[in-house]
């Protein structure tokens, strides 16, 4: 029996251990002895293999975007700790940095506060032949800013009135916009916050805004639903990604982006390009009057 494992610290097997293993039974016994959760390790190995194939497909897509001088913007929105940054990292880690990039704007300067709200985002939109990934976007003003008191009520109302027209102009000008909302449960968010606080390597991710996320959960939900109602359009729909399972969310968001384009070499990697409709799907309005 041939057993192949990636040498990743998550598995906790060293080279000498694996050289001793000749059968599946011996592998299971070794895992028990070392108190390794074999099922989790196998799941991780499968994930890394799938991820590699999808990243090969993404490289083909990038070539297509560059060759055909397309402009593509992928927006990642969602609650804190929903996994936006981790997914973006998997999108860009093997792409050509000359025709791709991550946009993660800091809080506006005094000069930017005096400008039209969308102005600083226009300046970082993709040029011809580029794909850009937005780690949060102009939709800060739809949820985070009104909830945290970072904008006034008139500013919020103006934004909500203007954003569909703004996106329609981008669409008419030929920019492809994919809007992801990474959806996480309150319980899972709390668990991830605790993990951040207890991990010195991730402590920097935990901010004062994060501390209020659980407390302001219902208020965030109210503004999130208003955002969907007013900005989910046929030309620029919201795509929901269930992210309680981080690694599944990463794979499915990759598959969704790939599914939106026909490009040379599509499917040649052997990757599964079919999205799971239980994990990634278009936002739909629920009729609360229906007794389902």
TrEMBL record:
Which EC number(s) does the record attach to this protein?
2.7.4.-
Record's Pfam families? PPK2
Mind listing the UniProt keywords for this protein, alphabetically?
A: Coiled coil, Kinase, Transferase
InterPro entries xrefs: P-loop_NTPase, Polyphosphate_phosphotransfera, PPK2-related, PPK2_PA0141
> What are the transmembrane regions?
none
Q: Does Isomerase show up as a keyword for this record? A: no
Could you tell me which SUPFAM superfamilies the record lists for this protein?
A: P-loop containing nucleoside triphosphate hydrolases (SSF52540)
Q: Which residues form a coiled coil?
A: 44-71
Q: Source organism's superkingdom?
A: Bacteria
Q: Which residues form the signal peptide?
A: none
Biological process (GO) annotations held by this record are: phosphorus metabolic process
- Per UniProt, the enzyme's principal EC class comes to transferase
A molecular function (GO) held by this record is: polyphosphate kinase activity
User: Is Signal one of the keywords UniProt gives this record?
Assistant: no
Cite the Polyphosphate kinase-2-related domain residue spans from the record. Answer: 42-266
What is the protein's known function? Uses inorganic polyphosphate (polyP) as a donor to convert GDP to GTP or ADP to ATP.
Record-stated family: Belongs to the polyphosphate kinase 2 (PPK2) family. Class I subfamily.
Its quaternary organisation is: Homotetramer.
| NCBIfam families (UniProt xref) | PPK2_P_aer
Give the protein name, as stated in the record.
ADP/GDP-polyphosphate phosphotransferase
Organism for this UniProt entry? Cecembia calidifontis
């Amino acid at each position: 029996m041939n057993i192949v494992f990636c040498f990743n610290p998550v598995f906790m097997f060293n080279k000498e251990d694996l050289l001793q293993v000749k059968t599946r039974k011996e592998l299971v016994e070794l895992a028990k002895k070392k108190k390794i959760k074999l099922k989790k390790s196998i799941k991780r190995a499968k994930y890394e293999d799938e991820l590699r194939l999808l990243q090969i497909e993404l490289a083909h897509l990038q070539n297509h975007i560059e060759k055909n001088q397309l402009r593509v913007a992928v927006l990642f929105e969602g609650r804190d700790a929903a996994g936006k940054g981790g997914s973006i990292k998997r999108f860009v880690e093997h792409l050509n940095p000359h025709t791709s990039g991550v946009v993660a704007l800091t809080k506006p300067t005094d000069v930017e506060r005096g400008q039209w709200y969308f102005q600083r985002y226009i300046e970082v939109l993709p040029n011809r032949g580029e794909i850009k990934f937005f780690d949060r976007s102009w939709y800060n003003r739809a949820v985070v800013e009104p909830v945290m008191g970072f904008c006034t009520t008139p500013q919020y109302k103006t934004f909500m009135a203007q954003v569909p027209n703004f996106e329609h102009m981008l669409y008419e000008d030929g920019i492809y916009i994919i809007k992801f909302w990474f959806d996480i449960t309150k319980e899972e968010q709390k668990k991830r916050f605790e993990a951040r606080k207890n991990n010195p390597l991730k402590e920097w991710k935990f901010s004062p805004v994060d501390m209020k996320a659980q407390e302001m959960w219902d208020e965030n939900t109210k503004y999130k639903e208003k955002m969907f109602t007013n900005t989910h359009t046929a030309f620029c729909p919201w795509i929901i990604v269930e992210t309680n399972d981080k690694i599944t969310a990463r794979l499915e968001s990759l598959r969704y982006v790939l599914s939106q384009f026909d490009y040379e070499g599509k499917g040649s990697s052997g990757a599964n390009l079919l999205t799971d409709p239980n994990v990634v799907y278009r936002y739909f309005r629920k009729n609360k009057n229906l007794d389902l």
